[in-house]
Amino acid sequence: MTVSAIAPMTGWYDYSEVARSILIAIAASYAALDLAGRVAAASGRPRAAWLSGGAVAMGIGIWAMHFKGMLAFHLPVPIKYHLPTFLTALLVAIFASAVAMYVASREKMGWREALNGSVIMGAGIAALHYIAMAAMRLPAITRYSPLLVTASLLLAVLFSLIALLMAFDLREETRWTVPRRIGSGIVMGLAVSAMHYTGMAAARFIPSPPPDFSHAVSISAVGNNAIGIVTLIVLVAAMVTSSVDRRTMTEVERLNQELERRVLERTSQLTAANDALTESEERFRRLVEALPDALYVHSGGKIVFVNPFGIRLLGAQQPEQLVGKDILEIVHPDYRDLIRQRIQRCYETGTASSPQECFLVALDGSSVQVESAGFPINWKGLPAVEVVARDIKERKRAEQAVREWQLRLELAQRVGLRIGLWEWDMVADTVVWSDETYRQWGFSRDDFSGRGEDARLRIHPKDKLLVEGAVQTVRSGGSEFSAQYRVVRPDGTMCWIDAHGVAIPAGSPRMVGIGIDITDQKKNEQSLQEAKAELARVSRIVTMGELTASIAHEINQPLAAVAANASASLHWLAVQPPNLDEARQAMTNAMNEANRASGVIDRLRTLLKKVPPQLRPVDVNEVIRDVLALAQGELVTGGVTTRTELTPDLPTVLGDRVQLQQVVLNLIMNAIDAMINIKDRPRTLLIRSATNAEGVLVEVHDSGKGLNTDQVSRIFDSFFTTKPDGIGMGLSISRSIVEAHGGRLWAVPGSLHGAIFQFVLPSADKNA
Amino acid sequence: MTEPQSIVFVVDDDASIRKALDSLIRSVGLTVQLFGSAQEFLQAKKPNVPSCLILDVRLPGISGLDFQRKLAESKIFIPIIFITGHGDIPMSVCAMKAGAVEFLTKPWREQDLLDAINVAIEGDAARRQQEKEISALRDRLEWLTPREREVLPLVVSGFPNKQIAAEIGTSETTVKVHRGQLMRKMGADSLPDLVRMAERLGIPDAKP
Fold first, then answer.
1. ipTM associated with this complex
2. Cβ–Cβ of B27/A639 closer than 8 Å?
3. Is the confidence at residue A612, as pLDDT, over 70?
């Protein structure tokens, strides 16, 4: 290089200016970073405004920094500046800043954008620098060191890249943004300055003739400072604007967030309300569907809605089968007028109609009894009536059942089962009675207060405790009341009542029940004892009936003798001369026979007499002999040989002579019957009496057909008989007589054949 | 002891009845003989005079009705008057069918008994008379030849001689001879007389 032959001029720096230039670079960098954030945050026209404003501010900042840096360089020659070039440099700076800002404010920044941006920006800055250098007018030729120029270019691009990355990273407003931005601004400012001063270092000023100074100006110290100040003002203005905007933005953002929060809140409220509404609607729908009553909505006379039960009630499967029909079409013809009026009234008055029993017509034509009520409603904006119809078939059936039960009860009462009904409030002590209960207690509906205490006065004194006990059972938690008691009516008559009640669990303590008039039954029980005695007597008579032949014989025999003797006597007196001896003899005979006859009759009469049993000392042997005398004829007829083995001096027993005679007679008659068909052996009757440990023992042996095991166990049962024409009462009555005397009666098979009936009676001294 | 004209037997197990009957029957002049049981009666020797039996239906060991049957079987044709303590219709029917004279229920009316006794004794006397006549007739019947006995039923049945001859294969004249012998031997005065005799002998009508 030829120029190198000439020594370059030596320049120096005014270091305070350098510091100022660096300060401007840092301020510009900070502003750039700050504004890049603003650009990124804005969009549309504001974005363009921010972008251009930022680019101008930053461009001016960079330009001013260069300018300051150049002014800080002093050469031994005066330096002037070509103004148009200088201004061009400013435009380039602004352009480069705009590119940088654009790139940094993009939503995304890939490596490609970053590199392109940094190359353009770096190139711009470099261009600014060298254009600005070119604006220098001084008496020297500027020579550039290619190495340093290249280095300055690379630095410009590198620093641009770093700046872009920093700016991109810092555009979001976060907590640490400002300190980091300050740090970044410092780094960037230093970087820009470094590039500048590197570029400056690349220049060598070779002294030469003065150049054309046209359009060139000299920058005075005042101008120099003014540029710095103006630049700072621009930058500060930009930063303040940015800050204000940022604050506004933050406020807007806060408001936005607040708004958003409120919107969210409101939305969730609305959603919840909506859900609740949906849920409620769902619940209502399910209710309507599950309703055990039929629901029909009709509007303008047509059915518009029907619930599932309403569908089933009329025998339909689908709502479509009913919806659209005339409402009166499903009403039984007999009720159509009535229902029409009711619907009319419903519409007119706007009030619900009262429940009404009527019949609907199912699809198959059958009638359905319901109880229905209508409610005026709005259906899709139109007046409608909602009809609730309840199937009352079951209720009707229950009512029918109650009526039928009542009929049964009445029937039961008509046929003589006297069942009274009652209900008793145990707290208020009030009763409700049926007619029969009134009759049982001897009250009439007019003269009874309805108070339990008034009724209880009529309970027989002897039964009061019993009734109170039964009531107490219920009061202390029992569920059933049961008592048999007497009620004494004012007229002195008595009514036996068999009362049963149940406590009603619900509500206040209450009982319902029935009272059965068992007076007759009780009377029967009372007369049973009398009947038993009467039965015994009748049984005796029956036995006597069997004895008729014998008895007639017993009586007729002496009577015949009396008559014959009397006749004979008359004849003896009639002969001439009267045979007085014979006559006397005959009369004596007649008298004896008459006595004999009366003896027989006496015995019979005691046996048949209706006298209550009397306990007297009785000689059992005497009883046996009396009975044998009575049965003598029967024994003879039956071909029975009678033998007695009566132990003398038996202890007396305390008993009823007649009843004991009945027992012996019964055993003897049975013995005769048992032997009636015996042909192959003697018919013998043996009667023995003896004393044993229990008292007096009597045995009746026969040689008859005997008893088998089954018979032994049953012969004492009532109505058991082995005789073709027997009634089966004799032994049963005999046993009860013996047992009533404190004794026992039993049968054992005879040793060879026949049977032995035995009974023991406690002796009188033992009894005493 | 001379034989009485008639005799009344009494069989009754009741002594007082026997005693009463004894007195009663004797008081009307009849002879009476008493027995306590059927057995005693059967074993006793009875004079062959018209008699009757007063019998109690109910006797120890054997009933009156059975005893009645037993007497009939033994060809003892004594008229029986039954007395009973209590009569019943089947029993009396049974007794009357078997030939009882009377069935009296105790206490009987005195006259009924005495009437019955009279009837019975008269009956017995008549029976004895008849028995005597029949045995006389039987003796005469014994005298007839076999041919005459053959002819007898035909004659009493009213057949003419000619038909009888044809029946037995002989001549009318022979029949006339038989007939004459027959009448003579039997001691019959006329044909109706002969017919009565045949009836009493129990000769049945002949059937041609």
1. 0.72
2. no
3. no
